[in-house]
Write a structure and sequence with these properties.
Length: 492
């Protein structure tokens, strides 16, 4: 298959860290596999000196198969035969698989037992150990604090099971960080994170913007009234943009008390639907328009719950780790954390760095912070080849952080190169267009071929998509400190 110019460049360029950024079906994996084949066949880099990481076992096997076929098609020299022999044990694997191989090699330096390094927990084992750990943690934290936490959850219509699932979510996020304990501790003693704080204003901004939108559409019915409302609401919006809650509240009350109401019928025309929608939004705002002090009080009350929640998470994590050690099993997050711990040791780091002449990473957009740190531990200054699709990272799947990919895209130094592929070889044009439209909508950007560059994606990511992600983020404390979706909702 003839490769495009950009694809060929991605296959042939050497001595640089390369990031290939492109949307689905643009040939990223094909390019990565071709590069792998060429490294072995043309550059004569032995397969055991290459690390190729994918995100599924199937993808890894397929990659191995393709390389195997290419090797079999060559004249069977000693070199080709040795490569075929090495292929079975080659580091063409998932990142977890790679981490497990590090753990198996150096288990005694963690230190864990040989048996433990080889026993991957079944999900039933891991679940049971987690549940036991959680129950023990609940029994050992301060009873009073725990009761308050339970009351808090029940005031939000949540059950004790929800505490458990929220703790699980929080721990999942924490485990994707290089220092999980430290990350959880960093959440303590703060009423809410900056993100939550922004969300709080965002909530009001969205409501007011919707009201303004309705006013604009209603001007043909009553120019004077709706211009007046719009003007007042715009002033509210200004205070929200300045993050001045007290003035926003005051201004909204002025608007509400001093502008005439929205009538169902204007000049004998019925606007029942618009009026209903408008009043509903107005009501949403009024419902949570508390005094600033009340919010502050609410947030302060939250600190105690957040601290209990974090303490419970830390304890659960700690007991869970001990249980796994007793049972001599490791789970997937252990593999990464143990590997990271090992790879930070200078001697191991050096060994692994010397071993891999080339590192290839597929589906890079799914890489989380810990995995990125693991790669950075042993990457040389110019030997990592990454391919990914920034659009796919907005879901926060596996705690992937789009910022990581963005960071590499923005990196412009003598060792880094960004290659963009913009042909789609899999989908027909209507699917491509739908996809573009869809992301255009999410990312609030005008999508044209010229604007397809990843940099633009990243810039737009910073605006709208971030919100989408925060809204769907499993991170429990968002839910707790944003009071389950409504800022300022009261609890006892
Ligand atoms: N230059 C090319 N000419 C023709 N077909 C191509 C070309 N490059 C890739 N393809 C084909 O396009 C399809 C998609 O390629 P590939 O799976 O490599 O894309 P991808 O960018 O990795 O997709 P995804 O984002 O889903 O992982 C494959 O069937 C592949 O064979
Ligand atoms: Mg692919």
């Amino acid at each position: 298959m003839p490769f495009s110019k950009a694809q060929q460049q991605a296959i042939d360029l050497r001595n640089k860290n390369i990031l290939v950024s492109a949307s689905a079906g643009s040939g990223k994996t094909s390019v990565l596999v071709e590069r792998l084949c060429k490294l072995v066949l043309v550059d004569k880099i032995s397969i055991d000196r290459i690390l190729a990481m994918t995100f599924t076992e199937d993808a890894a096997n397929e990659m191995k198969d393709r390389l195997k076929k290419r090797l079999q098609a060559e004249t069977q020299t000693d070199y080709i035969q040795s490569q075929l022999a090495l292929l079975e044990t080659a580091s063409i694997c998932t990142i977890d698989g790679f981490c497990l191989s590090i753990v198996k090699n150096y288990y005694y330096k963690i230190p864990i037992s040989y048996k433990m390094s080889k026993s991957v927990a079944s999900s039933a084992q891991a679940n049971k150990a987690f549940l036991d750990a959680y129950n023990e943690a609940c029994n050992s934290i301060n009873t009073n604090d725990f009761v308050k936490l339970k009351l808090f959850f029940s005031s939000l219509g949540k059950t004790e099971d929800d505490i458990l699932s929220n703790i699980r979510d929080l721990i999942n996020v924490a485990m994707s960080k290089p220092d999980s304990n430290e990350w959880i501790r960093s959440l303590m003693n703060k009423p809410c994170s900056e993100k939550t704080f922004n969300w709080f204003f965002q909530y009001f901004i969205e409501q007011i913007e919707s009201m303004i939108e309705i006013c604009k559409n209603m001007k043909e019915a009553d120019e004077q009234l709706f211009s007046l409302k719009e003007e007042n609401l715009n002033t509210c919006l200004d205070f929200l943009y300045k993050k001045d809650y007290a003035f926003f509240k005051k201004q909204f009350e002025i608007y509400f008390n001093n502008t005439p109401g929205f009538k169902k019928t204007i000049n004998k025309v019925s606007y029942e639907k618009e009026q209903g929608e408008f009043k509903k939004i107005e009501g949403n705002i009024l419902n949570v328009l508390y005094e600033k002090e009340e919010y502050d009080q609410d947030l302060n009350n939250n600190i105690e719950r957040i601290n209990t929640f974090c303490t419970l998470s830390l304890l659960t994590m700690d007991i869970f780790a001990k249980k796994k050690k007793e049972m001599e099993i490791i789970d997937f997050t252990d593999m990464e954390h143990f590997a990271y711990k090992l790879l930070k040791q200078p001697m191991i780091q050096e060994e692994v760095r010397n071993k891999y002449q080339m590192i290839l990473v597929d589906e890079f957009q799914d890489t989380n912070e810990l995995q990125e740190n693991i790669i950075q531990c042993f990457a040389r200054k110019d030997n990592v080849f990454r391919v990914g699709d920034i659009k796919q990272s907005i879901y926060g799947f596996r705690q992937a952080r789009p910022e990581i990919m963005q960071g590499h895209m923005d990196k412009e130094d003598e060792n880094s190169c960004l290659i963009v592929l913009d042909e789609n070889y899999r989908s027909n044009q209507s699917i491509v267009e739908f996809n573009n439209e869809f992301y255009d909508h999410i990312m609030n950007t005008t999508f044209t071929r010229e604007k397809l560059s990843p940099r633009r994606y990243c810039q737009s990511w910073n605006s709208q998509a971030k919100r989408c992600r925060a809204a769907s983020c499993p991170f429990s404390l968002y839910r707790i400190s944003k009071l389950d979706g409504k800022p300022g909702r009261k609890f006892q």
